[in-house]
Amino acid sequence: MNRLQTALAVRRQVQHRTVGVSPMYGVAFCPVCDKQLYHRRNGKHRYYYCQNKHGRNIPADYVEKLVFDTFLEEFGGDKVMEREYVPAENHQIELEAAVRAVEELTPLAGTMTSATMRSRLTEQLRALDFEIARLEKLPAREAGWVYKETDSTFESVWKTSTPEQKRRMVIDKGISARIIKESDSIHFYIETQKIPPRPEDLRGKS
Ligand SMILES: [Zn+2]
Questions:
Q1: Looking at residue 11, what is its pLDDT?
Q2: Are 86 and 144 within 8 A, CB to CB?
Q3: What does the domain layout of the chain look like in residue ranges?
Q4: How many angstroms separate the alpha carbon of residue 19 from the centre of ligand 1?
Q5: Which residue in 172, 165, 162, 150 sits closest to 75, CA to CA?
């Protein structure tokens, strides 16, 4: 029940955010002024246009097909990456517990009279010493996101993806299109850059 409510809340939020975002935002540009092409719906028709009035309106389906076909041709067989949250790794609590144990045992050392008890205590302290040394050497890792490869290819998830998800996939692969319609001919230039992700891109802050 609770989980369903959360899922609904998340979905509603996502829908709100994507309303009004052009399906080609960050992807399609005017080759004359290099500005973002704008998306407009006019009744049944959707099209892209340059705000600086370069060229004529370009049918949206044409632009999107051009970009999506390029994407699927180049990257359709690649595996989809998934973002996964990795919690912080901090050994401070274990370290404090070990130090506290040492502090509790140390005063006893002076009160031991039997050799057996003294050697037991020494063993315990030595074990704690090792444990503290081990914990001190472990790196403290900050929480963050990492990307992991999934079993699905872009091709296999394409049909069930939303326009916004498709836009993200296209942008992630560095695809951009310069496109203009003059008279009745459409000129375009598509760039794709397969840039390997940098570590700082993969590990954002939480
Ligand atoms: Zn322009």
A1: 52
A2: yes
A3: 2-85+143-202, 90-137
A4: 24
A5: 172
Distance 52 CA to ligand 1 centre (A): 5
HEC sequence for 67-105:
HHHHHHHHHCCCEEEEEEEECCECCHHHHHHHHHHHHHH
> 33 alpha carbon to ligand 1 midpoint, in Å?
4
Token pair of 15, please?
């829908």
> Per residue in 25-82, pLDDT tens?
999 999 999 999 999 988 889 999 999 999 999 999 999 999 999 999 999 999 998 8
Ligand 1 centroid from CA 180, angstroms? 8
Strands 144-153 vs 176-182: parallel, antiparallel or unpaired: unpaired
Number of helical H runs and strand E runs in the chain:
7, 8
Q: Which residue has the higher pLDDT, 196 or 162?
A: 162
Q: What is the pLDDT of residue 125?
A: 93
Residue 17: per-residue pLDDT: 40
pTM, to two decimals: 0.59
How far is the centre of ligand 1, averaged over its atoms, from the C-alpha of 31 (Å)?
6
**Where is pLDDT greater, at 127 or 3?**
127
Q: How far is the CA of 190 from the centre of ligand 1 (A)?
A: 16
